[in-house]
């Protein structure tokens, strides 16, 4: 069957033809309630409730949902399905289950997280139960173990490179919106808010910054260390109490591990700029993220049986792991800085700034994010410990 | 038509059915003389002469030619054809022309280099006209410009990753024979020649060396900088006076640029160990290689319009290029060392050692190669200039 944009009725008809999915919902098609809950920038999302259970159905549109004149290849849904299948065994319970993927409709059918809230919203409402960052650290470390070169024969990584390098439509967004646009004059950049024009101009003429961004562009494009989520911000995470799930893996690509870490930490740091009174709690989240990430990685890589490091005995491997973690830390700092800047002045900004109660507060918050972002980008490459990252954030 | 191993008659019949190739040969099929000249480890090669011209036909066998019980997927011919097509526009005149690729027969039909000699043989016979290394330096730099991230939109590199990551059968050979086997006990390792057993054992128990090899494994697998030839030794180069051509691109994969540089220099250094009286000439070749490579790269990347370094002005870009070259230099030293060691004690050793007139000389030559190789691997990562490489080689 060829692609068509599904509405409630179309989705109902399609689901009724899928015996396994119908069984999960229970009853008959007319018993099911369907509501559209599209929230992200790119896709339509429906929640379907039946007598026996619920499903989440996510369909790719041929354009950006919030910008219909920006075409966007449908294949991103395929990459999201591939991502979920590639990492699911390693992160059971940390992402929704994928029940089905329809290659014609570019439609994913997943476990429904009805009770969960998007982490960004929970943070803004100050309702996130502390400790979520430790789960995310574990999540990233486990995806690295499942897809990197240390724990797997090199053919595993080669296959992932083959399967994900074609995800160029979404990687182009990353290359443009994160790695380039905020540092140049560009139609996609929104008009800066009052008082920020000089700061934006400074970003576009700062040669020291541009050189450091160039090194991060190099890292993003050439350092193919593991399969990245590729868009791991606080809007790609849902939680219900201590149940934390990562969603929206459509940006998946092989890349530098610090990219996932940096985007996550960058979004916590953006929240910190908008809500500096929460510094203690946010610092604790960042520390918990890095601790769980690095501890999980240390233990996971200690006995890795991949081709990379295959010769190393126990002591040699520990040395390699520590060097590896230091390199990840440096990338993390740089990508964290890029995320802070692009989410402050770029095409897709964060809602966290709505926490600022006055225009002046918001301006100061944005300026602080730009300043921390710049420092992380320029000085990140010489960091030696995670405390150094916190220190550059003023924590 | 399905795959079959071609003999003279089978090749003649097939060529007769290809109008364009028949026309290049001239006359009719019975006028053509065909002789098998298979020389490498993996494939059969035929030279076909006709009244109007000649062709070189290379067919992949389903096993290693010199080890019929070692199966080897036919697809390597496809990757060689892809490699030639990917780099041909950038290296016109520096590789044979590819006239046809038959996907069923896994057969490449190329320009015939009748007057050319393999560089390794020419070196052994002391008949190579000096200056060939400058051409190879240019060749590597131009392939980098055509396939790296600085001069091309990132989609080009992504497509190359997609097209070449599946070349796992031959990359597995690299991972095993170059990056792993010489440093462990392994059935594929030949019995060391008399007097070398202790040196081989030392390689297998040297933890400092193993740690450094681990870092190079990491570089080879994760640093996907440009499309590599992947097997750029002196047996993959043919020359006729000053006409120098690179052949045998079947190991092609995206990888660290220093891998191609290091393999080439490593083979010159192996020749040096076997023929130390030629030190002045070989030093000059090495200097010429690095000079032409780095100068071509400097000028080629100065105006690159890729996504990587897109923000850099002239001064910033020069700085990025110099850092880039220094990183390539360090990789080069390490991979050079790996090549020297594996070609001295590993599965596929070099004929250059036949130049040693006594067993004792040969033993000393091999020991010197192992010592230089180890030093390059362990100390390469802290080099700051090409003179440092020469100095580690005692030049």
From TrEMBL, chains A, B:
Broad enzyme group: transferase
Pfam families assigned to the protein according to its UniProt record, in alphabetical order: APH (PF01636)
InterPro entries (UniProt xref): Aminoglycoside_PTrfase, Kinase-like_dom_sf, Methylthioribose_kinase
Keyword annotations of the record: ATP-binding, Kinase, Nucleotide-binding, Transferase
EC number: 2.7.1.100
GO biological process: methionine biosynthetic process
Domain called Aminoglycoside phosphotransferase: residue spans: 34-276
Recorded superkingdom: Bacteria
GO molecular function, one term: S-methyl-5-thioribose kinase activity
Record text on subunit structure and interactions: Homodimer.
Family the UniProt entry places it in: Belongs to the methylthioribose kinase family.
Name of the protein described by the UniProt record: S-methyl-5-thioribose kinase
UniProt source species: Gluconobacter roseus NBRC 3990
Gene assigned in the entry: mtnK
């Amino acid at each position: 069957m060829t692609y068509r944009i599904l509405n409630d009725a179309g989705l109902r008809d399609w689901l009724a033809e899928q015996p396994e999915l119908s069984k999960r919902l229970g009853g008959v098609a007319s018993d099911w309630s369907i509501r559209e809950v599209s929230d992200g920038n790119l896709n339509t999302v429906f929640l379907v409730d039946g007598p026996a259970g619920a499903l989440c159905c996510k369909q790719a549109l041929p354009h950006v949902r919030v910008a219909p004149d920006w075409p966007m290849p449908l294949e991103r849904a395929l990459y999201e399905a591939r991502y979920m299948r590639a990492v699911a065994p390693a992160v059971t319970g940390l992402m929704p289950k994928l029940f089905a993927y329809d290659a014609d409709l570019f439609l994913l059918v997943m476990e429904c997280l009805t009770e969960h809230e998007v982490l960004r919203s929970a943070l803004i409402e100050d309702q996130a139960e502390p400790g979520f960052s430790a789960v995310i650290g574990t999540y990233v470390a486990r995806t690295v173990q499942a897809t990197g070169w240390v724990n797997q024969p090199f053919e595993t990584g080669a296959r992932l490179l083959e399967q994900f390098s074609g995800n160029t439509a979404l990687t182009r967004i990353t290359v443009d919106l994160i790695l380039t646009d905020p540092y140049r004059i560009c139609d996609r950049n929104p008009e800066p808010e009052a008082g920020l024009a000089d700061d934006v101009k400074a970003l576009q003429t700062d040669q020291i910054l541009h050189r450091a961004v160039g090194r991060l562009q190099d890292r993003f494009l050439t350092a193919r260390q593991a399969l990245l989520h590729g868009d791991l911000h606080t809007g790609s995470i849902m939680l219900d109490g201590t149940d934390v799930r990562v969603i929206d893996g459509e940006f998946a690509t092989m890349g530098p591990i610090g990219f996932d870490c940096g985007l996550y930490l960058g979004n916590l740091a953006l929240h910190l700029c908008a809500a500096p009174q929460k510094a203690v709690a946010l610092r604790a989240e960042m520390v918990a993220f890095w601790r769980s990430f690095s501890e999980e990685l240390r233990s996971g890589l200690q006995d890795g049986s991949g081709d990379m490091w295959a010769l190393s005995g126990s002591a040699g491997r520990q040395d390699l792991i520590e060097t590896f973690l230091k390199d990840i830390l440096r990338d993390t700092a740089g990508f964290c800085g890029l995320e802070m800047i692009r989410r402050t002045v770029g095409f897709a900004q964060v809602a966290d700034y709505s926490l600022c109660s006055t225009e002046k507060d918001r301006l100061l918050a944005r300026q602080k994010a730009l300043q921390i972002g710049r420092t992380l980008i320029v000085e990140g490459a010489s960091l030696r410990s995670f405390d150094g990252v916190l220190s550059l954030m003023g924590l």
